[in-house]
Amino acid sequence: MPTNPAIPASLPPRLRGIEELRTRTPMYDAVIEEIEGRRIRVGERWLVDWASCNYLGLDSDDEIVAAVTEQVGRWGTHPGWSRMLGNPRLYPQIEERLSALLHADDTLLLPTISQIHTSVIPILAGGGTVVVESDAHKTVYDGCVHARGLGATLRRFSSGDLQHLADHLRSAPTGPRLVCVDGVHSMSGTVPDLAAYARVCRDHGAVLYVDDAHGFGVIGERRADEGSPYGWGGNGIVRHRGESYDGIVLVGGFSKAYSSMLAFLAVPAALKDHLKIAAAPYLYSGPSPIASLAGALAGLEVNATRGEALRARIHRLTRRILDHVRRLGVRTLNTDGTPIIELPIAAGRDLVDVAHQLWRQGLYVTLVPYPGVPHDQVGFRIQVTAAHTDAQVEELMLGLTELAGGGVLRPAPREPRRSVRD
Fold this sequence. Notes:
By secondary structure, the chain is of the alpha/beta class. The protein has 13 helices and 14 strands. It is globular.
């Protein structure tokens, strides 16, 4: 177990919470020795892993592993070129299948979402105005700050406040207007009203840029043959909200649901061609390894044949946990049933102490300190995957019951009492 070294007084306040977790708990900066399904071994301790974002469970899927082995045997471990110079056939194969799945004009693959944000947001913003929602992912905000450094005006609007957004767009000077938002939120799991955002953007001639890292592969379009309330196909928030790509740039990744280091943009073909000569990751960055390309391509096949069953399983397991959380009377930010369940701890509780209690219970989670979230949301996040078992869900619920009974978890807000006349 980590010792309790003093936190340097010179450390900026925004880093102190993370440094405290890194030095005082076993759940930050951990070295994982072994993995078995959704169990991991850290040192000699086996725990159930609720910190993984491998939503579809493809990281341990036999079909994926076999496909990766075959393609590595054919192509070697790593392409020797940036995408500007050469592309293994796997790239266009993935882009064609992905575009069809998304119902998008075209797609462009790049190694990571973070690279996309820092390179593409400045290109789209140019010398105009970029407006970012207050709860957008840190990497989205970083991309917007980079755009500001290259000449754009940067503004922020309160998440969900359409009037605030409209005011910013209305007062923006002449030039490109770009609005950057999250799709499925990485902490709360909430699904925003994308159609409302798109309507405001179209009314003001702005492009809507959406980071759907946690939605792609999980939520999808609504149709009669969908396997769960998540929708069909896992083709992301744009289709889930019944939207077209008119004025929308969708950014997603394979590193969550598909367990592969690969990311994409859904864009018009003309914009794709422009990014091929303007986006630094396409021109200069090292490419994704063959294993990631092969895993993504095989994952698209699994999604076509087994995706609905996998999402139905995730939904069922998530529903069990959320129902239990609500029976316990504790707060969760999850209102839309996605497999991201953040549980804030009670006021006055120390997240380090809570981490040690979870460790003793054999539960490995994502710890969420301030300033990553506001003080009243400090706690931990649980991610549900298709590789979890019902027995593991039972263990988790027992652990949450113990935490709730000890007053560790923040109580749910009380419903306002209705009068007889209501």
